[in-house]
Design goal:
The protein is mainly α. The chain has helices spanning 2-100, 106-134, 138-152, 154-158, 168-183. The protein starts with a helix and ends with a helix.
């Protein structure tokens, strides 16, 4: 029985040493797992920092693009406002001209303005012809009056046409000037 007791006594020692071995392996295993988790955490943190940096750069780029677009929109808005103001001013001028020429649309107004321009030219040429007659330059005055008749027509200048260029006093002055250039040679 003593022999049976001895191995039983060694058994606890052996068990104790064996349990120490398992404990050491267990601690080393836990240490390795902890080290692996720390490395994995570090790698994940580096990746997250890199991705955050990329997203930050992308956000900065998009923000600057949006700011640029907003600046362009403001410039365009200013341009539209200026053009609208200019258009309104031009429309006011057009309305005033239409009222002055007693016309209802732009085509009629343009025709009336062209007629006024022609009247101005004719009156100027008549004034020059009158001055030439006063200076006894009858041939020059006759040439000037004949050119007016050729360009505009006698009926429009003497007021007999329905769409006469000169009316009343101006037409009477032209008729007198025309007669003077015809009688004096």
């Amino acid at each position: 029985m003593e022999e049976n007791n001895k191995p039983a006594e060694q058994n606890p020692c052996e068990k104790h040493q064996e349990s120490k071995k398992y404990l050491v392996f267990y601690v080393i295993g836990l240490f390795c797992v902890a080290l692996a988790l720390i490395l994995l955490s570090y790698v994940s943190q580096v990746r997250a920092d890199k991705r955050l940096s990329e997203l930050s750069t992308q956000l900065d780029t998009q923000t600057s693009a949006v700011q640029g677009a907003n600046a362009r929109v403001e410039v365009l808005q200013q341009s539209v406002e200026e053009q609208t103001k200019l258009l309104n001013e031009q429309q006011a001028i057009l309305d005033k001209l239409m009222k002055q020429t007693n016309t209802d649309n732009t085509d009629d107004m343009l025709a009336a303005l062209e007629k006024l321009s022609d009247q101005k030219k004719v009156l100027y040429e008549m004034l020059l012809a009158q001055q030439e007659l006063e200076q006894s330059r009858v041939a020059d005055a006759k040439t000037r009056v004949d050119k007016l008749v050729t360009d505009y027509g006698l009926e429009k200048l003497n007021g007999t046409d329905a769409n006469a260029l000169l009316k009343e006093e101006s037409a009477a002055l032209f008729t007198s000037l025309y007669a003077q250039t015809r009688t004096v040679q």
